[in-house]
Amino acid sequence: MFHRVTSNLIVKPRVSSINFSRLRSAICDMSLEDAKRIAAYKAVDEYIKDGMVIGVGSGSTVVYAVDRIAERTKNENLKLQCIPTSFQARQLIVKHKLNLSDLEICPAIDVCIDGADEVDKNMTLIKGGGGCLLQEKIVASCANKMIIIADYTKNSRQLGDQYKKGIPIEVVPMAYAPIKHQIERQFGGELGLRMAIAKAGPVVTDNGNFILDWKNYKQDYDWAEINKSITLIPGVVETGLFVGMAKKVYFGLADGSVKEQV
Ligand SMILES: O=C(CO)[C@H](O)[C@H](O)COP(=O)(O)O
């Protein structure tokens, strides 16, 4: 950076007092939130119809979808039944005074709208960044259509290109160590027990389980096969690999448009 020289004084330009990295991150955060919102609104407007049973996913992008569902429910007097995929989703449904239901009452879901941590070119997903993968997979498996909403950072060619926190695997607590060793031995990479932030010890899921995050895996795996093999290990409850489940993905882009992947 050049400085103005006045007499013998070096005067730093005022602009040097701006913290550019904070400014950049503020701008990026804003456009990322906008990207989530436009994807969520478009998906809700295109898929949610009066009388439907809907699956409500988890995460920060789903918050916008529920905002839109609530707005449309009020304006259009929609009659919807909402099945949550997590404690968070349940709270969102209750907060917006939407009809809360469950799989016992409504075992068949019309549309499930959920977020994702990464989406590859075949629409294989990594989910579970928020630790809700088990209920998310159960609810999605009951849905006629699973619709994904995400910002542009989730759009990937191969799993692992964008999302670096690993593939979540929900496990029964007593089995986490042998499962970790078996997956590392059989498939490579490293698995780490997900630790809580505002609590000492591991994250405990809504179902009372632990989460192992699998990093440094081979990126060109056949994910359907890997998913099958891992779920067969005793103590594994579910993986965050969603293979062949998503019907359509809406990516909110930084320029304000929405890209659709089918
Ligand atoms: O799978 C999930 C939670 O278990 C979320 O859908 C995923 O983590 C995406 O979250 P966000 O919309 O906050 O990026």
UniProtKB/TrEMBL annotation:
Keywords: Isomerase
Pathway: Carbohydrate degradation; pentose phosphate pathway; D-ribose 5-phosphate from D-ribulose 5-phosphate (non-oxidative stage): step 1/1
Keyword Lipid metabolism on entry: no
Pfam families for this protein: Rib_5-P_isom_A
GO terms of molecular function: isomerase activity
Top-rank EC class of the record's enzyme: isomerase
EC number annotated for this UniProt entry: 5.3.1.6
NCBIfam families in UniProt: PRK00702.1, rpiA
Stated family: Belongs to the ribose 5-phosphate isomerase family.
Protein known as: ribose-5-phosphate isomerase
Biological source species: Nicrophorus vespilloides
